[in-house]
Specification:
The complex is a heterodimer of chains A (91) and B (417).
Chain A (H helix, E strand, L loop, with lengths): L2 E4 L3 E4 L4 E5 L13 H8 L8 E7 L7 E7 L4 E7 L8
Chain B lengths: L6 H8 L18 E2 L1 E4 L3 H14 L4 E4 L15 E2 L6 H15 L1 H5 L10 E5 L2 H16 L5 E3 L1 H7 L15 E5 L3 E2 L2 H14 L3 E3 L4 E7 L2 E7 L2 E5 L2 E3 L5 H7 L7 E10 L9 E4 L4 E5 L5 E7 L11 H14 L8 E11 L6 E4 L5 E5 L9 H14 L13 H4 L14
Parallel strand pairs in B: 1-12, 2-3, 2-13, 3-9, 5-15, 13-20
Antiparallel strand pairs in B: 4-8, 5-7, 6-7, 10-11, 11-12, 14-17, 14-18, 15-16, 16-17, 19-20
Classes of the chains: A mainly beta (91), B alpha/beta (417).
């Protein structure tokens, strides 16, 4: 359990949010031209990092807006929160 | 040579105040080279080593474990064993395991306390009723025992359940698999460890894998905290940490690791003599031989390796437990913990070769791996020894995420994942 600083609403309980998985996986521009391997990569394959991970989150029981987060999955510590379309604030 | 455990050895050791029992397994230093190395000393990894030695004659092998054996998910689950899965591939896999469970204590000469007390799955709405009835039919076509119980029969089988039609999610019936049940989770790890060690398998604890050495498309060995160990075959059975190992060789797996929580109550006299699971409200409960209620909660929805999880998940589960079993309302919970489970998009495991020669993965068991421990070990050992999957795990290959031929047990299995 942890607190999340929603970029639109401020600090709220994590149970108000839903996790959207790894961030910055871009939907293919030409889906019809993808090979099966590329589709599998887009749909299923994840880095599932133990450590600093970039993630999408949704403030489901609040403003319902999506945003991104830099979180350490080994201790659930949140390092930064940034809006959709922005570049990650760390490397 | 290991001494056999029996009533006679118990009496004999009583005369020396139980101070002269033989060590159950050695604590060896790693050799320079092994024919195969298993990464992960949980139930699945130790079972894999055991069957590699027993059925495939591979004795020069090692199990490396970063902590202590059985200290991960093997010691953190709710010990439920069942095989009532919907799809043919899953039914084959899990019932293979269940059949091994039935003779496992004898096979290992170690009491794993396998208890076929039955597992009952409850239906709370019309769709549940249809799904569960369909599943019982599918189970029976696959030779797996399953019966449908109406509300009254559910009440007769487990009298403490609140079957009032006025509760938020009333009990409309349930399914029962009588061959299903529970086992003592630690004993499974210890029994397999003792059995594997007796055949010469080196179990190396406190040895974390730091890297995998490759030569082109084949493996050469592993870098560990105890130095480099050479090998041509590596079986990865690292559960929640499978992706960590995969990232060492730039393989991406279709996994997300999440905390799955469980909790136990203070011990009380026998009150529930079966396992009851509820898919819709996500609560399941059984009672250990010590008398504790063993309660399983759900997974947190985010990736985490913290082995704890959120309070609201436990709260949701306990609300459902109290509605279904008002008799538990004043019980105190003693311990709560989380295990890191690696979940596949189709909620089915991966027991597979990879495109790297000599590298095999056994992962993705998600929230329900304990029940499969003996079968998983047996089939993974077959896959490693022959470099080919057994027909029972052929469908659980890693390429199904490319071909689309998924074994979609999400919601189809007897519990929500």
């Amino acid at each position: 359990m942890f607190l999340i600083n929603c970029p639109y609403c401020g600090e709220r309980d994590q149970s108000e949010f839903s996790a959207g998985g790894e961030a910055h996986i871009v939907r293919p521009k030409q889906p019809t031209e993808l090979s099966d391997d590329q589709w599998a990569e887009f749909l299923f394959m994840r880095k599932n990092i133990k450590g600093i991970q970039l993630e999408r989150w949704n403030h489901a029981h609040g403003c319902r807006k999506w945003f991104n987060m830099v979180r350490d999955t080994s201790n659930d510590k949140i390092h930064a929160v940034y809006k959709m379309g922005e570049k990650p604030p760390i490397k | 040579m290991k001494n056999k455990y029996s009533i006679f050895s118990l009496i004999k050791n009583a005369f020396s105040y139980h101070e002269n029992w033989q060590r159950a397994w050695r604590d060896p230093e790693p050799k320079k080279e092994y024919d195969a190395i298993i990464i992960g000393g949980g139930g699945h990894g130790l079972a894999t080593a055991f069957y590699l030695a027993k059925k495939h004659g591979m004795k020069n092998i090692a199990v490396v474990e970063k902590g202590w054996i059985g200290g991960g998910n093997t010691g953190r689950n709710t010990t439920i064993i069942r095989s009532n899965y919907l799809w043919d591939a899953s039914a084959g896999l899990y019932d293979h395991a269940l059949k091994i469970w039935e003779g496992l204590s004898q096979e290992l000469n170690y009491n794993v306390m396998f208890s076929q007390r039955g597992v009952m799955n409850l239906a709370h709405n019309l769709q549940d009723v249809r799904d569960l009835k369909r599943r019982t039919h599918a189970n029976r076509l696959n030779g797996i025992d399953a019966v449908w119980l109406n509300t009254e029969e559910v009440k007769n089988f487990c009298p403490i359940i609140n079957t009032s039609p006025d509760i938020r999610y009333p009990v409309l019936g349930g399914t029962l698999q009588k061959r299903a049940g529970t086992a003592r989770h630690d004993a499974v790890a210890w029994g397999y460890a003792r059995g594997a060690d007796a055949m010469g398998v080196d179990i190396i604890q406190n040895c974390e894998v730091k890297g995998i050495k490759r030569n082109g498309d084949s493996v050469e060995g592993i870098e560990t905290t105890k130095g480099f160990i050479k090998t041509k075959k590596i079986g990865v059975v690292a559960a929640g940490h499978s992706s960590v190992i995969a990232n060492m060789v730039d393989i991406k797996l279709p996994l997300e690791s999440k905390p799955l929580q469980a909790l136990v109550s203070e011990p009380v006299k026998p009150i529930i003599d079966t396992v009851v699971m509820s898919n819709a409200v996500h609560a399941y409960v059984s009672q250990s031989d010590k008398g504790e209620l063993v309660i399983g909660a759900g997974t947190d929805a985010y990736v985490s390796y913290t082995q704890r999880g959120s309070h609201d998940v436990v709260e949701g589960t306990l609300k459902a437990i109290l509605e279904l079993y008002p008799i538990f309302s004043r019980m105190k919970m003693l311990r709560q913990w989380g295990g890191i489970v690696d979940i596949c998009p189709d909620a089915s495991p991966i027991i597979s070769k990879t495109h790297i020669k000599g590298l095999y993965f056994n992962c993705g068991w998600g929230t329900g791996g304990f029940k499969a421990t003996p079968g998983s070990g047996d089939l993974f050992a077959h896959t490693i020894a022959n470099d080919e999957p057994h027909k029972l795990n052929a469908d659980f290959n890693i390429n199904r995420f490319v071909s689309g031929d998924l074994v979609d047990e999400h919601g189809a299995a007897a519990v929500a994942h």
